[in-house]
């Protein structure tokens, strides 16, 4: 675990953008019972934590994708972070709707995307990668060259690795499931026994 993974994980825990309840699991939209629930939309309301995340995303993109030419936000949660990162990097911004508009020109990409422009898409969370890979497909359909995806948090699910590989798209996250639960235990938010429960749950998703 890097220092930045630890710092971002602590920030998410501090503002309860990520909650851990191994004794009273959440129910995901898929029906899965989970000891962890993520709502990274909360970050936009906390300036200190928001600054940590934006600085981290900016540094991650500069390191992983130094030839980026435009930043894209995935609707809706990725849009504010993409806007702040684009501003920090002095790059063009686009955003990708979940589906094309049903009126006017029927656009799915908002902003000015030029042919073969090298784009990094930002989303708040990667679970299986389905939604963001839909945005990747839409951007490529408009001749954008998506060179990678970055997110604030990743559940580290094998399905995501498989789906991104199938889409021939690389991805990177500021922090992840493994880092976050370790930080949670170290900071006293969960007990060692609860840490083990959460780890065992995660293994069932492999």
TrEMBL record:
Domain of life: Bacteria
Phosphoribosyltransferase domain mapped to chain residues: 70-153
Residues that hold orotate according to the record: 127
CDD domains associated with the record: PRTases_typeI (cd06223)
The name this protein goes by in its record: Orotate phosphoribosyltransferase
Role played: Catalyzes the transfer of a ribosyl phosphate group from 5-phosphoribose 1-diphosphate to orotate, leading to the formation of orotidine monophosphate (OMP).
EC code(s) of this entry: 2.4.2.10
Gene for this chain: pyrE
Listed cofactors: Mg(2+)
Residues annotated as transmembrane: none
Residues the entry annotates as binding 5-phospho-alpha-D-ribose 1-diphosphate: 97, 101, 103, 123-131
Biological classification of the source: Bacteria, Bacillati, Bacillota, Bacilli, Lactobacillales
Keywords: Glycosyltransferase, Magnesium, Pyrimidine biosynthesis, Transferase
Catalytic class of the enzyme: transferase
Gene Ontology molecular function: orotate phosphoribosyltransferase activity
């Amino acid at each position: 675990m890097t220092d930045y993974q630890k710092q971002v994980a602590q920030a998410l825990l501090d503002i309860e953008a990520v909650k851990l309840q191994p004794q009273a699991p959440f129910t995901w939209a898929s029906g899965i019972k989970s000891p962890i629930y993520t709502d990274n939309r909360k970050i936009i309301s906390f300036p200190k934590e928001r600054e940590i995340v934006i600085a981290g995303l900016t540094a991650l993109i500069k390191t992983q994708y130094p030839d980026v030419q435009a930043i894209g936000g995935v609707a809706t949660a990725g849009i504010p972070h993409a806007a702040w990162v684009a501003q920090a990097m002095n790059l063009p911004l686009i955003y990708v709707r979940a589906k094309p508009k049903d009126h006017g020109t029927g656009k799915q990409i908002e902003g000015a995307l030029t042919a073969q422009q090298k784009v990094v898409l930002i989303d708040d969370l990667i679970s299986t990668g389905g939604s963001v890979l839909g945005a990747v497909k839409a951007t490529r359909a408009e001749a954008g060259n998506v060179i990678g995806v970055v997110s604030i948090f990743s559940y580290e699910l094998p399905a995501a690795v498989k789906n991104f590989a199938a889409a021939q798209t690389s991805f990177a996250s500021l922090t992840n499931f493994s880092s976050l639960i370790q930080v949670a235990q170290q900071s006293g938010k969960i007990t060692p026994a609860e840490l083990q429960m959460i780890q065992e749950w995660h293994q069932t998703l492999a």
